[in-house]
Known about the structure:
Largest sheet of chain B: 6 strands, mixed
Number of helices of chain A: 0
Oligomer: heterodimer
Distance between the termini of chain B: 41 Å
Radius of gyration of chain B: 14 Å
Order of helices and strands of chain B: EEEEEEEEEEE
Number of helices of chain B: 0
Helix content of chain B: under 10%
Strand content of chain A: over 45%
Radius of gyration of chain A: 13 Å
Shape of chain A: globular
Shape of chain B: globular
Largest sheet of chain A: 7 strands, mixed
Number of strands of chain B: 11
Distance between the termini of chain A: 36 Å
Strand content of chain B: over 45%
Amino acid sequence: NAGVTQTPKFQVLKTGQSMTLQCAQDMNHEYMSWYRQDPGMGLRLIHYSVGAGITDQGEVPNGYNVSRSTTEDFPLRLLSAAPSQTSVYFCASSEQGYEQYFGPGTRLTVT
Amino acid sequence: SQKIEQNSEALNIQEGKTATLTCNYTNYSPAYLQWYRQDPGRGPVFLLLIRENEKEKRKERLKVTFDTTLKQSLFHITASQPADSATYLCALLSSGGSYIPTFGRGTSLIVHP
Lengths: 111, 113
């Protein structure tokens, strides 16, 4: 099993550009989530999904969109990048929220 | 408001000693509490889960306690080694919630040889 994979590993965007961070898992987990991690702020929940077709907002959803058309994939879309979105983004999956399996992260810089 | 507090100052200890990390919370009714390890540049890795009706959980050199009256969990690493140096995160899952955990900010542990 590959576990949770994320692409790209690194990305630099200009303000106003849009992009999609990819996340996929091969463990057939129903629960998937996106977190951002900033120095001194810990992991903050952006969006999450409890199954295909079901998504909900977390603590810091503004500026991000998600969809969940399959169990395996949970992409995160930045609509119009801002410098405040410079961060490390982690995707995670789990069975009913128990043990979270995290991906390796995407380091995003917005200039 | 809900808060999860972990000591922001790094914990420095000597190899072989027991490291104890603290997680305090307010305005939560956690059904589960988890501990994760995070190494620089990597995603967190799950270590232990303890339920609200459990007082203590052990796994090899790791021990977690959970006191719902004090609203506190303690995470112990016995016979610590330099390889245990990392940031340790606690996470809470509320009863009746979404089963997506909320994380504390983590405490850095540095074990000196």
